[in-house]
Amino acid sequence: MEKCIELAKKAEGLTSPNPLVGCVITDEFDNVIATGYHHKYGENHAERDALLKINKGEGDTLYVNLEPCSHFGKTPPCTDIIIEKGIKHVVIGMLDPNPAVSGIKKLKEAGIDVTTGVLEDECKKLNEVFIKNMTQKKTFVAIKTAATLDGKTATSTGSSKWITSEKARAEVKIIRNRYDAIMTSSSTIIADNPQMFHRKKIILDRELKTNPESQIYKQGEIYLFNEKKDGLNGNINFIKTPVKDGKISLEFVFEKLYKLGIMSVLVESGGKLSGRTLKYADKIYHFIAPKITGDNSSKSCFDFQKITDISQCLNFRIDGIQTFNPDILLTYYPIGK
Ligand SMILES: NC(=O)c1ccc[n+]([C@@H]2O[C@H](COP(=O)([O-])OP(=O)(O)OC[C@H]3O[C@@H](n4cnc5c(N)ncnc54)[C@H](OP(=O)(O)O)[C@@H]3O)[C@@H](O)[C@H]2O)c1
């Protein structure tokens, strides 16, 4: 199953709105005889990719991180080819959250042994975006921030280049690629003029005050949420958006993203937008550089409320700590989501 996950990850950023799936087939002596994965949306599922590499009767056990599909989508049902090729045992990481899938039932009816729940937590983490999309019909929202040890993302004058090292910033590019789109704010564009290379970019700019010549507009499909106008101009899709308390309604933005088929988004902004987004966030990537600004007027990486009692803090579960020397990356999830 570990190998299935490793294979599935090869297609990160390419399968949306489909899940990431890898498959391993062994013979009766447990030798691996074929592997496969879902390379790209619309292409063969992982099971078919692997099964097409063997002849009927050669495979004994098929391992796959997600329950095989039993319905016609862009490709025929995987259960059919598993049965056709004479597989005797299917080992599954997690059940498919898509109610249209009932692969296990069909496999069992064909006399195939089925084992489920192998490395289930790891398999669920691999497809956390797909699970949210299927079960909640909502876009998965991740936040990336980079801060000093004292939790600052920029000085009071807006200087933030660079808090983290080149290694950490290279990792950000890998993280971005996992998500259908990235999102940032007018303030960050005005302060940093970032390029933020990506297929799809979401920009929140209520009054359309960013310069259209800014780097960010030069590449990618842009969705510009604003209070003034709708319409398409070149690569920019203007989306007129309701305003709440003087700010663009994030509820509207995230609902609209799902309707646009954007299944996941990585928010990369300063503390005001990152802070307001926490309410909607499913996951946070938090880089920390071993630096201290020592200046309370520097900008905090999450800045959205005034509290008087420490019990009013939001709470999270740390899931991972990685080092990108000299920085670290904490990955965490909101508790209760
Ligand atoms: N270290 C890092 O990871 C990192 C990353 C990015 C930026 N930065 C730094 O962060 C600084 C900017 O931070 P910031 O806190 O001033 O700004 P910010 O969080 O980047 O953006 C705030 C702006 O977002 C827009 N916005 C739209 N909807 C919103 C909502 N519902 N709630 C809040 N904001 C909403 C508003 O602009 P409109 O009214 O125009 O819509 C608001 O002024 C820059 O200096 C930049 O260098 C650091």
List the SSEs and their pairings.
Layout: H1 2-9, E1 22-26, E2 32-37, H2 46-51, E3 61-66, H3 78-84, E4 89-94, H4 103-109, E5 113-115, H5 120-126, H6 128-136, E6 140-147, E7 152-154, H7 166-177, E8 181-185, H8 186-192, E9 200-204, E10 221-226, E11 231-233, E12 236-240, E13 243-244, E14 247-248, H9 250-259, E15 264-267, H10 271-277, E16 283-288, E17 299-300, E18 316-324, E19 327-334
Parallel strand pairs: 3-4, 4-5, 6-15, 6-16, 8-9, 8-15, 9-10, 10-12
Antiparallel strand pairs: 1-2, 1-3, 7-17, 11-12, 13-14, 16-19, 18-19
This protein binds NADP nicotinamide-adenine-dinucleotide phosphate.
Detailed description of the structure:
The chain has 337 residues and is of the alpha/beta class. It has 2 domains: 2-124, Cytidine Deaminase, domain 2, CATH 3.40.140; 138-334, Dihydrofolate Reductase, subunit A (3-Layer(aba) Sandwich). 24% of the residues lie in helices and 28% in strands. The chain is built from 10 helices and 19 strands. The protein has helices at residues 2-9, 46-51, 78-84, 103-109, 120-126, 128-136, 166-177, 186-192, 250-259, 271-277; strands spanning 22-26, 32-37, 61-66, 89-94, 113-115, 140-147, 152-154, 181-185, 200-204, 221-226, 231-233, 236-240, 243-244, 247-248, 264-267, 283-288, 299-300, 316-324, 327-334. The strands form 4 sheets. The protein has a 10-stranded mixed sheet with strand order 11-12-10-9-8-15-6-16-19-18, with helices on both faces. Strand 11 (231-233) and strand 12 (236-240) form a beta hairpin. Helix 3 runs parallel beside helix 4 (103-109). The radius of gyration is 23 Å and the shape is elongated. The site of NADP nicotinamide-adenine-dinucleotide phosphate (NAP) has 30 residues, from strand 6, strand 7, helix 8, strand 14 and helix 10. NADP nicotinamide-adenine-dinucleotide phosphate (NAP) binds next to strand 6, strand 7, helix 8, strand 14 and helix 10.
